[in-house]
Design a protein that fits this description.
single chain; about 190 residues; mainly alpha; 12 helices; membrane; signal-anchor; transmembrane helix; Sulfotransferase
Length: about 190
């Protein structure tokens, strides 16, 4: 369209419930770097909201735990069309089409080592030895130190409700995961 070559788009996505829980608790309690980080990220959050249990948030339909706030990954991959912000099969299809048409790779965070292996194969100039560096004991703990503090798993009932609310997000996640596994097989990886 502009007479220049398209860049190689790459991304990594995370299981939607895992992403939601991490965000929920990080906004409230920060991570190992500082429990006070929430004061910067969410200065107006009152204590009753900060200490609201994730179960109550989900089961009592607080805005943070309902759509459209849960609709996160699909809009990102869908694009800038205003319809991309509304949970719908149209937005889901467009997000999937964009992955197929424009992305060299969308990896899976839960399969980060395999994602790094694929990146080493597809873009060796940029990612040679990425897995080796990631696995190096001198570097290994760095990424793991950003876990949100005070994270708790919701009840089984709350998880079921959340999974239902994240239907489009999970449809997209499973699609991307299947595409990723297909690419791994094409490259001769597990």
């Amino acid at each position: 369209r502009y007479g220049v070559e398209q860049p190689a788009y790459i991304n990594i996505i995370r299981d939607p419930i895992s992403r939601f829980l991490s965000s929920y608790f990080f906004r409230r309690f920060g991570d190992w770097r500082s429990e006070q980080i929430h004061l910067v990220r969410t200065p107006g959050m009152k204590d009753e909201e900060r200490f609201l249990s994730v179960n109550d948030c989900i089961l009592k339909n607080y805005p943070e735990c309902t759509n459209p706030r849960l609709f996160y990954i699909v809009p990102y991959f869908c694009g800038q069309d205003p319809r991309c912000r509304v949970p719908s099969s149209w937005a889901l299809k467009r997000a999937k089409d964009n992955v197929v048409q424009y992305y060299l790779l969308v990896g899976i965070l839960e399969e980060l080592e395999d994602t790094l292996l694929v990146l080493e194969r597809l873009l060796p100039h940029y990612f040679s030895d990425a897995l080796k560096i990631y696995s190096d004991p001198d570097y290994f703990g760095l990424g793991n130190g950003t876990s949100s503090l005070k994270k708790q798993l919701p009840s089984r009932r709350a998880l079921q409700v959340l999974y239902q609310r994240l239907g489009y997000e999970y449809d997209f996640y499973y699609f991307v995961r299947d595409q990723f596994h297909l690419l791994k097989r094409k490259l001769g990886l597990r």
